[in-house]
Fold this sequence. Notes:
Elements: H1 2-18, E1 24-29, E2 35-42, E3 46-53, E4 61-62, E5 66-68, E6 74-79, E7 86-95, E8 103-104, E9 108-111
Antiparallel strand pairs: 1-2, 2-6, 3-4, 3-5, 3-7, 7-8, 7-9
Amino acid sequence: MKKTLLLAAILASAARLGAAPPAITEVLGRPTDRSVTVNARADAALEMYVEYGAASASYASRTASATAAALAPTEFLLDGLTPDSRAYYRLRYRAAGSTGTYEAGAEHAFHTQRAPGSASRSRSRATRIPSGRASSTAPSTRGRSGRPPPTSPTSTSRSATTSPSTR
């Protein structure tokens, strides 16, 4: 009997060690200058939470944990972020109903939006036009593809001709 229990325990441990981690998809949405939502979906029932912070591998904040069925989308709001700055996060998970330790997913990063009304950090360069040359401010006649837009039969150009009444 002891041999059977020992063998069962060894096999259970080996199965856990060889088990592949769940496939988890994470998508960011609803970004603002102070928050973003992480949408997570896994191929197994999991208990999950997200930890996040302003420095890599240093997570000062975390969301509440949520339990989700396999393939059920789950949302986590990361709030209290600093506008126009980089933030780091990772998903922590364990099997639903488990009391074991949470596994750590890969670290990801994103940049929050600028605060409304704040100036852009980007620098624009003025284009110097040599004297004697004029620049055109007329809109381009080319489409997004770089080619001229297609013409319709009603918009073909007409050459200057004299009508029979003016001859």
